[in-house]
Every structure is written in structure tokens, then in C-alpha cells.
Amino acid sequence: QVQLAESGGGSVQTGGSLRLSCVASGFLGRRYYMGWFREAPGKEREGVASLYFDSASSLSRAEYSDSVKGRFTISRDNVPNVVLQMDNLAPDDSGMYYCAQGGHALTAGTYRTWGRGTQVTVSS
Questions:
Q1: What average pLDDT score do residues 7-30 get?
Q2: Is residue 71 within 8 Å of residue 87, measured between CB atoms?
Q3: CA-CA distance, 75 to 64, in Å (whole number)?
Q4: Which residue in 114, 109, 121 sits closest to 36, CA to CA?
Q5: What is d(CA 48, CA 10) in angstroms, rounded to the nearest whole number?
Q6: For residue range 90-106, what is the model confidence (pLDDT) as tens digits?
Q7: Residue 77 has pLDDT above 90, yes or no
Q8: For the CA atoms of 9, 116, 113, 1, what is the dihedral angle to 10 degrees?
Q9: 93 near 85, Cβ under 8 Å?
């Protein structure tokens, strides 16, 4: 059974940076996606970054939503964990950020396993 735990959220001012970490345990499979999603009050959960990894070839492929492209970077950290480096943050980036595994790209409804989330607040 896969379990995920996020950390690294906090409060920053516009233009600041945060680094979110997702620690994964359990058997993730040979090929899988891990994604970061966010949910703001009154809004649907949206995918911001995903990372596809094939352990046989060590191939990895990142994908980003248009709203964060060029500002956020998803990467592997001490396999199978992933981090989300968030730079040049804006108030619209505020929300609860969730790590997820077992789905496809940035489509939240396809993911089977979710962490409990970590709060990000960006003030103007």
C-alpha cells in the first residue's frame, strides 16, 4: 500500500519561494506518475506538475500547467520521493497542495493515492 506525506508548506510574500517535499512509501510500480495538485477555497482541485518515471530505463518526464510553467519545477529526490520547487509565487498560488501517485499526468480524477496536503499561503 502506497502512502504519501507532504511537507514544506508555509506563508510567503509575493515573489517568494517554497520547496514542497513528498515522501512516498510502499511499492509504487515500475512505471508511474507522481503529481502535485492544489485546491483553493471554492475552486476545483487542479494539477500543477506531474512527473512520469520508468524505473527500467530511468526515463522521467515532467509536465506543468500553464499557470505555473517557468516558475515551478518538479523533480525526484531520494527516489521515490519528489519535490516541487516553487519560485516567484503569487497570491493565486495559495491553496492546499497535495501529492498524488498512480494516475495520469495532471488529471486529478485518475490518481488513486493522495497525501493529506500542505498549506501554501502567498500574501501580496
A1: 94
A2: yes
A3: 12
A4: 114
A5: 18
A6: 999 999 999 999 999 99
A7: no
A8: 110
A9: no
Contact 24, 3 (CB under 8 A): yes
CA distance 40 to 49: 16
- Asked if residue 50 lies in contact with residue 99, where contact means CB atoms within 8 angstroms, the answer is no
| Residue 57 confidence (pLDDT) | 83
Three cell numbers written together for 24: 512516498
Using only C-alpha atoms, the chain has a radius of gyration, in whole angstroms, of 14
- Other Cβ atoms less than 10 A from the Cβ of 59: the count is 10
Cβ atoms 118, 5 nearer than 8 A: no
Nearest alpha-carbon partner for 22 in 70, 78, 72, 63: 78
Residue 33: helix, strand or coil by DSSP? Answer: strand
Rounded Cα distance between 100 and 112, Å, is: 7
The pLDDT value recorded for residue 68 is 98
Residue 108 backbone phi and psi in degrees, to 5 = -60, -40
Beta strand 3-7 pairing with 113-114: unpaired
Summarised one tens digit per residue, pLDDT across range 29-45 is 889 999 999 999 899 99
